[in-house]
Amino acid sequence: MPDTTDTAAPYQTIIGLEVHVQLLTKTKLFCSCENRFGAAPNTLTCPVCLGLPGSLPVMNREAFRLAVRAATALNCTIAEFTKWDRKNYFYPDLPKGYQISQFDLPFSEHGQLEAIDPKGAFPPRMVRILRVHLEEDAGKSMHDEAAGTGDSRIDLNRTGTPLLEIVSQPDLRSAAEARCWLNELRLLLVYLGVSDCNMQEGSLRVDANVNLHIPCDGGRVAKTPIVEIKNMNSFRSVERALTYEVARQYEEWQATGKELGSAPKQTRGWDDAAGITRGQRHKEESSDYRYFPEPDLVPVTLTADQIDEVRRGMPESPRALRQRLEETWQISAYDADVLVGQGRALVNYFETLARLVEDGKVASNWMQQDVLRTLNERGIAIADFPVAAEGLATVIGRVKKGDFDTSRGREIFAEMINSGRSADDVISEMGIAAVGDDELMTLCRELVEGNPKIVADVQGGKEQAAAGLIGQAKKKNPNVNPGKVRALCLEIIRGMS
Amino acid sequence: MQPTELSAVELVAAVANGDLTAVACTQAALDRIAALDAGTNAFLHVDRDGALAAAEAVDAKRAAGQPLGPLAGLPVGVKDALCTRDMPTTCASRMLEGYRPPYDADTVARLRAADAVIIGKTNMDEFAMGASNENSAFGPVRNPWDPTRATGGSSGGSAACVAASMVTASIGSDTGGSIRQPAGLCGVTGLKPTYGRVSRRGLVAFASSLDQIGPMGHSAADCGLVLETIAGHDPLDSTSLNEAVPAYTQLLEEPLAGVRIGRVPAHFGDGLDPEVAAAVEEGFRVLEAAGATIHDIDLPHAKYGVATYYLIAPCEASSNLARYDGVHYGHRTKEPCRSDAFDSPLVEMYCRSRAEGFGPEVKRRVMLGTYALSAGYYDAYYKRALQVRRLIRQDYQEAFSKVDLIGGPVSATPAFPLGEKTDDPLAMYLLDLYTVTTNLAGVCGISFPCGFTGSGLPVGYQLQGPALAEPLLLRAADRFQRLTEWHRRRPTTA
Ligand SMILES: [Zn+2]
């Protein structure tokens, strides 16, 4: 596949992502401890997740259901038979000395998810998904380096949290594509309700594998050694780290000529403050995990009917939703992307509004300019927005009717947001009343009579001079509709000549 | 009435009808332990106060006219591999010396709920790895029939405490014969139930796919009585069977007429002690006299049982025992861990803690398992072993289409002198020859005395049955015991 995003570069960038997502279950994967972030250390634990002697795991069906839901949305094939395996390694935050994971028979594989840039910076990129499997999370180690004692503290609250591992094929061709794809993945998982995908709290974690394919003389393609980048704590960091690493690899290749196979896969950590990746020291013999089937758990079987049932219960994906909004409400791809990116609840608000005002474009404009701005300013979600779609629809309806103009409508809406009062209340409180036709005619006559200079200008062909009349009209009566004033005044002036 | 001379069935009845108090039974057990156990070393921990308190509670219940549990007043010894919240649980290892679990094993909870009185925790091979009970970090158990000899293992303490009538019944665990073999060498009756019949929750894991908890006592009826309490579905053990628990003790009356018992000629090969062979053959005659028919059958892959077992069990053990790393509980080295010989202080702490905490047999098996699971060896060892395990399972299926039960020896020799095999791990592993296939196939087996050697050592007879055939297994063993007196013999103790 040709590089479509950076045709100027003398190489092709090859990126694959490995994403870990914590599932939104009430309890952990193999015990009944609460699955919750932010509790006091080691308070959400029991003999099972502490790995005490004699304890046994029992699979959380809800975790498996969410996992199947996610994999189905990622177009994966769901296995009718899947099993658990032990991944053995020693670490203080892994109290059993092994992680219950899935090795050779993951519950799903062969999926795909497309990265589409709403601004069209690169053509849509279909990314294949190698596999999605379920496993338990480890605990958290906090190394107290500041204290200089070398002490480490272990919090096992996270131990046993259900974790979905999503491994993509190396199908991404730029850092921007990677970020876009991650955005789409996060949005999808949030829409499905399987995860809150909060990177700050660690419920979504990303590792990236990257290398370069460099065309050389004679048609040979040099491949740089694959580097795995860790410690990226935002999608922006992922993009920055990949951009940095791509440049670094090209420079290193120019300097050393080292290619894939001549060096083992390297792990580098992203230093966000310094804006660089650094090689991490790790042991050569690191990855013999001695996987074998977990004898404490029974294999999981799903019937074709059960898999179908999950498929039927699938909500509209962000991608399908964008398309539907574009088609149904005639809004731009960009606007649809912004709305969908805000979550399903905001889209519902928008669609209610659009239905009430019978105009998707107008509704979308109000959403983007007024509703979203307020949400951002206040840092609240649409669920906490003080004005219901019906209230905003009333305002927009009055604007459309010509009772007042858009900017007046905005003031009314802002006041509704601030006071929480209804459109009608705010309108009457602000003294806004529809101006009758007779009243308006009288006002315009007065204006024309009182402004001979403007009248002369208009008569001389400068119609824009009428703007001065509108300003005066608004001063005399703030409720007048500027468009109507202008039209009426011009009509009177024309009638004079 | 001397409580320690009663069977479990008799004792429970005596407590229920007021002929004996639970306190008297408990006191008798404690007295006998005080008198004998210094020489036997069957107990690692005796919970004198807890046992008396539990017994008093049973007596108070009876006095108040409240219904008693089915094991009310029964003094029970529990293998130290089962978690007990009020007693240490060490698995006879320095690694867990002083460790107190925060919860009771399912079996322990069921015993308490049935008003049994848990006297203490019995000695065993460290982490249940062994066939002589010489691998205990706290000293070997001595055979009550001859204190210079081993009890067998790994549930040696549970076998010895019943054999010496310190308690009326006990709980063991059987991964490759660890209930049946010591039962055979100590002249008691021991049942390894079908895999999943008794919950493993709270049993410190050795080899998860093979481990099974079971009862030990003086008779099949006693084992049936205890099994009625400890068997049953546990939703917190995913491998526990969700099958109704029969009233085993109510199903013993039907005669054995028409029951087909298989005999495997290969069991009577070269390694079998002639006195053992004779007693076991006599056992077949007894069953025949009871109405059973004897049929020669073949278990063609049984000869690979020991090799298969000594791959699967160590592989699972190497992973199950990884948690004993000195970080969260258990033994942690007191060395400073600042040596350059290790990759990091953490790795040094792991290595030293495990080197100090585990005994040689545990280390041997952890290393065997780690090796067999390593990249490049998995297919040749672990995977191959699983394939042979399937063949062994098929052998049993095939056999049980022809016969109802399979009879034969439990172990090739009677109790052997302490120290005789400790320097020869392979000879020790071969002690499991007749028992490991039961675990590999996941079926059930029972061992009970079928005679004595000229020098007065008990010889065990083993019956194996298909999955969930415990009612028939217990009925056949009970019928055998109605026709013989071997199980009534007691060692002469000081
Ligand atoms: Zn837990």
Blueprint (SSEs and pairs):
The complex is a heterodimer of chains A (497) and B (494).
Chain A: E1 12-22, H1 61-73, E2 77-78, E3 81-82, E4 85-88, E5 98-101, E6 108-115, E7 125-136, E8 140-143, E9 152-155, E10 162-168, H2 175-192, E11 204-215, E12 221-223, E13 227-232, H3 235-256, E14 266-271, E15 276-279, E16 292-293, E17 300-301, H4 304-312, H5 318-329, H6 333-341, H7 344-357, H8 360-378, H9 389-401, H10 406-419, H11 423-429, H12 437-450, H13 452-459, H14 467-476, H15 482-496
Parallel strand pairs in A: 13-14
Antiparallel strand pairs in A: 1-10, 1-11, 2-6, 3-17, 4-5, 4-16, 6-7, 7-10, 8-9, 11-12, 11-13, 14-15
Helix pairs in contact in A: 2-3, 5-6, 7-8, 7-9, 9-10, 12-14, 12-15, 14-15
Chain B: H1 8-16, H2 22-40, E1 43-46, H3 48-63, E2 75-79, H4 106-113, E3 117-122, E4 142-143, E5 146-150, H5 156-163, E6 169-173, H6 180-186, E7 189-192, E8 213-217, H7 220-230, E9 260-263, H8 274-289, E10 293-296, H9 305-320, H10 345-357, H11 360-373, H12 379-399, E11 405-409, H13 425-429, H14 436-441, E12 444-452, E13 458-465, H15 470-483
Parallel strand pairs in B: 2-3, 2-6, 9-10, 9-11
Antiparallel strand pairs in B: 1-3, 4-5, 6-8, 7-8, 7-12, 11-13, 12-13
Bound molecules: zinc ion.
Zinc ion is lined by residues 28, 31, 33, 45-46, 48-49, 160 of chain A.
List descriptors.
heterodimer, A: about 500 residues, alpha+beta, 3 domains, ten-stranded mixed β-sheet, about 40% helix, about 20% strand, B: about 500 residues, alpha/beta, eleven-stranded mixed β-sheet, two-stranded antiparallel sheet, about 35% helix, globular, binds zinc ion
